[in-house]
Sequence to fold (958 residues):
Amino acid sequence: MPATAAEGAPSDDQHGPDRPGSHGAGTGARVTDLRVALTGSGIDVVDDIDLVLEPGEIVGLVGESGSGKTTVGTALLAYSRAGARITQGAVDIDGHDLLRLDLGAVRAMRGRRVAYVPQDPGAALNPAIRIGRQMVELLELAKEGSAADRLARARAGLAEVGLPGDEEFLARYPHQLSGGQVQRVALAMAFLPRPKVLVLDEPTTGLDVTTQNLVLRTVKDLCAAHDVAALYVTHDLAVVANLADRVAVMYAGRIAEIGPREEIFARPAHPYTRALLDAIPHLSSARALAGIPGSTPGPGRRPQGCRFHDRCAYATDECARVDPPPETVGPAHVVRCLHHAELPPWSIDTGDIADTAPSAQRDVVLRVEHLDVFYGRTQVVFDVNVDLARAEVLAFVGESGSGKTTTARAIGGLSRQWTGRVELGGHELARGARGRSAADRKRIQYIFQNPYLSLNPRLTIEQIVTRPMELFGIAKGKAATDRAVELLDAVALGPTVLTYRTNRLSGGERQRVAIARALAAEPDVLVCDEITSALDVSVQGSIVALLDRLKRERGISMLFVTHNLALVRSIADRVQVLQRGRVVEQGFVVEVMENPQEDYTKTLLANTPTLR
Amino acid sequence: MTDTSTDTAALATLPGPGVRRRPATGAWALWIGRRLLLALLTLWLCSLVVFLATSALGDPVRAVLGKDYGTSPERVAALREQLHLDDPVLTRYFSWLGHLITGDPGVSVASGLPVGELIGPRVANSAVLVVVAALVMIPVAIGIAMLSAHYRGRRADGIIQVVLLTLAGLPEFVIGILLVAVFSTTVLHVLPAVTIAGGGAPPWSTPVSMILPVVTLVVAVAPYVSRIVRSSLLEVLDSDYVELARLKGVPESIVMRRHALRNAIVPGVQVIALQFAWLAGGIVIVEYLFSYPGVGASLVDSVRNSDFPMVQALAMVLAAVYVAVNLVADVVSILLTPRARTAIAS
Fold:
């Protein structure tokens, strides 16, 4: 039997909600009036946070980057990252206010009463320590049970998350596991000391949909089985819609709205929540996505009054002056908006549009035949055939490793290790971009996934956007600058950015610059490689709206590489589903989505989290 | 909703990347064999350069005989004969190399004694000095780095960094002279300023005489190692896995030792190796300063006397130390990096 050596150590008994006090069901967590501020300046990162987590309940904490959601998450463990400090409030767990305890006592609570599941599965496990050792570390430090007991618990924990608990697996290092496996190990590790409160920080970011779905179900099952109060921090409303009991929406360091899941998704009372929901693509129908103008202000740049007022469609003068108090608008539904009562009715179906009809007339610009791509001697893409019509968006969709980006790079001339035939406007293209004529290169433009890496940080935006015009002899000097202003206007950026370097722009703005640069060459085909996956949904919404406009107004065709099936429904006309380098299913979006033929497509569709 | 258990089982049976069960010893032997071959190749190239460079230095006979060169042609002839200087360069090279490989580095021109006999104890003395210095330096440097990283950005860290940078900026002979002044001559008289090994006894027979040379070497080398380990520690301390360890409630001392240091030490190993290799050359000055009977003093004397068999042998010893230390550092780095280790094993 394991000896409960440390004071108040949780018992080994899995189902023991019997003894009151330190054992059993726990009392969840209560956060009151929490404020975390930057050290030095004292500017708040998050402010005025009140949050209750009941035992057995999963609360989704949703927000875009810079909203302070992770800060709230780690504050539940009385932890703040370097440069910030918890300056006010209380975090009550099991009758203790973590913020009043000394560091030793807080440590005793961390991991054992309140545990944390990290964001990036690959980076959060120590690369130098074997899985088994890492899992039992905490038990070992507390000298809980014998070595054999601890190992047995680790095995049981791994079994709970659907992983093998054999010697071979326990002896592995993190790099010998797949992303989904590492994340489930992290989950099992967090659950091992039987905590009663759990903070999950975007634990499925970067995982494929099938793996994500598996991890989410594991989270749900474990929380229910162990009566854990969980805070699920994420930027993805669709994930929360399938997982959480209650949802809190954060904006600029405040909780803008909190309520039961059904309430939040059926009757969102805050304009920000509504705007977020309007920006999310649905799997069940195409939507005209709308972004939210501007970007989330970081600490120190947040406006007076209602923090959302400068981006809000319903803002009045009053909003700029008065900080809206929390108001109850329904059962357990609280919102911070002065005008919540006057907002027009809202429906999740807002913005639904018709899919592209399969009967549409098609004028093919780009044709790819029998494309095989190789990495060294390994073939990674097999016999892909593509035809792309004018003013058409063709989506390549698949999980990581499906060859979607590889295919796009071959077509864009970024890789030369391929065989087959790529025809643009009736004539064949050379393999690499260097072998293609200037005219050919001009006609296909590539937009990369990460706008933080794809723009030269030493050039001004003007230089970046005018460069292709000079290169292809489209315009130069004053004429080029004028055109750059037009293009920036087309991507919703003002002429003031011309003199900026990229470090002054947000991720969404950078990606707009990258699009403007691609457009500067006046291309016929844009290859968009996961161009929204590094961006917040509100920004993704406006980028998608922008691409849609470019397609209609300029007749540009696009190859749109993505892993997000819901996004495909809203942006693409046709879709090709890739699996392990082969196209397994293709057709018009409406046909593939409504009536998938292949099991793989069906699995992808079934695992994609969606609001509807 | 689909059945969880079947789905889970299916995913669980997927093989993880890079996990292959194959006897790892064979792979290791192959890897080490390849590295050893490369090391030998390096040494061979060194031997070529050393031999050609010493041959190109000028006529050794003239240097050895000095003023007698012009007056006694028969001695010149005898010496030329003894040193095989009339043979073609390649012949001389291969005969030298052959002897070197069979453990016979020739005869000293200056003393007429076998080179092996002359440098054997010297090499041992220097090796002891360097190893002792390293054994002191590594824990001290890492300890200082951990202390500094623990107090990052605070005053203690600042003071440590300024001191380290100052020490790193001082040449080792300045440090040596300062230490001598403080402990042996001007201020205190507690430690001997020179290593007097009476009657050919090794210097470690009087350990107290080794203190100053060792301290000088440690002070000359530790700052670099400390600074590198500190900066990689800081990087690791900012990593997600250290954050997770803290959020798991692991005490800070264990976070530092088990989670941070283990991952931060690898860049340190490479720097330690470089410093070690530098030590092999750097002791020349330090040994000279303290009259320590090591290779340094020998090398200086041999160069001065144009005793080219001695210079060649000592240069090859130093080259071998360089190559060996770097090889060891690579092996240690790989052993400390699971990702690299498993990559070799599979």
Q: What stands out?
A: The domain at 364-607 of chain A is CATH 3.40.50.300 (Rossmann fold). The radius of gyration of chain A is 26 Å.
